[in-house]
Q: What sequence folds into this?
């Protein structure tokens, strides 16, 4: 008897659970459904974690990076230096805080008056956490419109604490480049810059695509045909030569900020056709769907149909497209900077960092220049994984197909 | 037959229209750059020691026809461009058609070879990854294709260069060895060219394969689930015969359709690979024209030629599609 009752009990709980999951499923919003499916995809989740880490590292780059990534933060004592790793133990005993050896440069008659670097193992330098370093400002906005009255500056907050540093001298966990700039700090700032260029580019492309694709799909007819011809013509021109032709306009006198915005705008102005075409196709097919007709027959007004029926069918699609087009923006920026037409050396962008690795000298002697390349690949791959995962998750028939 | 001719004619007209529109964009870009040919010519004369005045520049403008209205000059440019005459480069003071010469065709050949390589690998691999139940194989193909998307071409080029420098003592750069660079075409020169051209083809094909693999996979996995495949299975069609005759045939259409844009993508990467491998082809000239000497006439000519090849390929694929796909054929004829 006892066994029977247990059986019945477990059955009812199982049935309850089943009902509950079904209820959850049918009452879930679109966003919840996508999130549930997305969570099941382990590679996409992994990509999402990597992406979040990289984005956070980019946003908090001034705090995490121990030194100023520009020439002001260079280490004159350690140019083209190899990565330094903290040690916990050596022949002189162990320490709970990681330490580095001191490098001493000296020259004398014995070395024929050449600078010689020696490592003094007895002089330890300890890694410190939250030390004071170079000053940085966050949330500072400066508006500089024509006319004095319109100028205003939000001062923002100034900090000088950093995540880590060294008690004496400097620590370079990714090494330094030829002018002694810390590659770790540069990489973090580069991620920030490249993401910012990508974001501005994607948003310009997005609004153009939504507008042109929307007009084209909504009105149809000859407006659609003309807009499609223009879209096709722009799609036919190879993008990077076109980028190059546009970027050739940048006068050499421009500051790095102006250059930065111009590059982002170019990326946006050329990136829209693919998205515009999808928006248009989507609008054209959805407009004639039966559920729209059903809503119309029920007496729904056009505004209601667009808000409650067309937009939900649409938003997930658009978000996915944005995520997928993001790595191509980053790649384009990289390619452009790589050729020397995009951002240039004082700016820290991934393209500029990649430009530094092309010489055989670097390949043979300074392999740590390649560390930013790994970050770049991780960023692009993470975007691709997340984009793919979102695309699968946003497809409502994805479950039934398998 | 008449309808088919009409279809071909409409498509040709559309391709022409696209080309004219693109030429307008390119021409406008060339015009927007500060400083025109007259100023450049005379700036050169100035460096040679002869003094120049504004009147000289004006006279030079009239001599070159630069005083004509914008549209007139555009029509003249496009008219000459269609017969392969792009005028002179203001900076190099050379005829662009002579300057480009066979270089453009070499570049086009390299790109087409990469495209061919990409699909030769991607079609079987894509079909295999959809059909095979093996998880390891599937993940392997997926991983390789993701790597192809994310690994920059120039990095691959650098790695291969480094490897070959260490292993064979030859960096494999350039398109010809020194003794064949300016020699006329001969069997030896072709052999020399082929022994070096495989590297750019391989590097350009690498990411193109990744893209093609994604397309083939997506199309095939859409098609194999469809009812007509199940129906064919029920009739007893199995194995390779089933795959090639049913889902693969359906997936072929969109692939042929996207060939033009694939070529576009490969052209995109050509300048960067050319820069690393120090190729002396059109890609390198393009970079030189845009990034270094700011030679808008040369850049415009190259971009126009690239676009013209893509438009031509799009036109050809449209016709091929109409010939091979009965559904498209019926929609034209019916």
A:
């Amino acid at each position: 008897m006892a066994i029977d009752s247990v059986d019945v009990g477990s059955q009812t709980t199982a049935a309850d659970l089943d009902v509950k999951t079904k209820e959850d499923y049918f009452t879930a919003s679109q966003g919840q459904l996508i999130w549930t499916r997305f969570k099941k995809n382990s590679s996409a989740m992994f990509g999402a974690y990597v992406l979040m880490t990289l984005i956070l590292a980019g946003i908090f780059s001034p705090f995490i990076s121990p030194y100023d990534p520009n020439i002001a933060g260079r280490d004159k004592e350690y140019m083209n230096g190899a990565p330094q790793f903290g040690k916990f133990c050596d022949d002189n005993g162990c320490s709970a805080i990681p330490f580095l050896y001191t490098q001493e440069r000296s020259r004398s008659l014995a070395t024929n008056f050449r600078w010689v670097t020696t490592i003094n193992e007895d002089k330890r330098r300890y890694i410190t956490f939250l030390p004071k370093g170079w000053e940085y400002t966050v949330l500072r906005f400066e508006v500089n419109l024509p006319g004095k009255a319109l100028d205003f500056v939000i001062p923002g907050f100034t900090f000088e604490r950093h995540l880590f540093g060294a008690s004496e001298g400097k620590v370079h966990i990714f090494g330094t480049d030829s002018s002694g700039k810390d590659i770790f700090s540069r990489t973090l700032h580069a991620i920030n810059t490249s993401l910012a260029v990508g974001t501005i580019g994607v948003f310009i492309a997005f609004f153009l695509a939504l507008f042109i694709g929307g007009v084209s799909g909504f009105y149809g007819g000859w407006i659609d045909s003309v807009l499609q011809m223009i879209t096709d013509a722009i799609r036919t021109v190879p993008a990077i030569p076109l980028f190059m032709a546009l970027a050739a306009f940048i006068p050499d006198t421009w500051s790095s900020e102006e250059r930065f915005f111009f590059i982002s705008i170019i990326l946006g102005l050329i990136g829209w056709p693919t998205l515009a075409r999808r928006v248009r196709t989507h609008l054209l097919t959805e407009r004639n769907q039966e559920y729209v007709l059903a809503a119309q027959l029920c007496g729904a007004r056009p505004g209601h149909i667009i808000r409650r029926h067309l937009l939900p069918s649409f938003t997930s699609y658009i978000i996915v497209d944005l995520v997928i087009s993001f790595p191509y923006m980053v790649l384009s920026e990289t390619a452009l900077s790589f050729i020397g037409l995009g951002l240039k050396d004082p700016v820290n962008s991934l393209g500029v960092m990649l430009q530094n690795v092309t010489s055989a000298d670097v390949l043979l002697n300074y392999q740590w220049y390649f560390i930013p390349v790994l970050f770049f690949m991780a960023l692009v791959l993470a975007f691709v994984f997340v984009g793919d995962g979102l695309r699968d998750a946003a497809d409502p028939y994805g479950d039934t197909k398998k | 037959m008449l309808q088919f001719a009409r279809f071909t004619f409409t498509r040709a007209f559309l391709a022409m229209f696209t080309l004219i529109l693109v030429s307008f964009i390119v021409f406008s870009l060339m015009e927007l750059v500060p400083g025109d040919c007259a100023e450049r010519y005379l700036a050169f004369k100035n460096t040679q020691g002869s003094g120049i005045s504004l009147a000289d520049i004006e006279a030079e403008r009239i001599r070159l026809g630069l005083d004509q209205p914008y549209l007139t000059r555009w029509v003249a440019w496009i008219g000459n461009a269609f017969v392969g005459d792009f005028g002179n480069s203001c900076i190099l003071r050379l005829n662009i058609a002579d300057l480009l010469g066979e270089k453009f065709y070499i570049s086009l050949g390299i790109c087409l070879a990469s495209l061919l390589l990409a699909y030769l690998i991607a079609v079987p691999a894509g079909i295999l990854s959809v059909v095979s139940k093996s998880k390891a194989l599937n993940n392997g193909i997926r991983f390789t294709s993701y790597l192809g998307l994310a690994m920059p071409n120039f990095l691959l080029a650098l790695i291969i260069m480094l490897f070959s420098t260490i292993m064979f003592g030859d960096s494999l750069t350039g398109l010809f060895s020194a003794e064949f660079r300016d020699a006329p075409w001969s069997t030896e020169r072709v052999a020399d060219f082929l022994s070096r051209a495989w590297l750019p083809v391989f590097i350009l094909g690498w990411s193109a394969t990744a893209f093609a693999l994604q397309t083939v996979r997506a199309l095939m996995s859409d098609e194999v689930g469809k009812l007509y495949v199940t129906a064919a299975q029920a009739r007893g069609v199995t194995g390779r015969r089933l795959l090639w005759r049913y889902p693969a045939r359906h997936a072929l259409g969109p692939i042929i359709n996207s060939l033009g844009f694939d070529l576009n993508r490969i052209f995109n990467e050509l300048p960067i690979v050319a820069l690393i491998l120090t190729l002396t082809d059109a890609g390198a000239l393009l970079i030189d024209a845009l990034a270094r000497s700011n030679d808008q006439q040369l850049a415009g000519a190259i971009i126009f030629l690239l676009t013209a090849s893509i438009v031509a390929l799009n036109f050809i694929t449209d016709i091929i599609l109409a010939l091979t796909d009965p559904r498209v054929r019926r929609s034209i004829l019916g």
In short: Chain B touches chain A through 49 residues (CB under 8 Å).
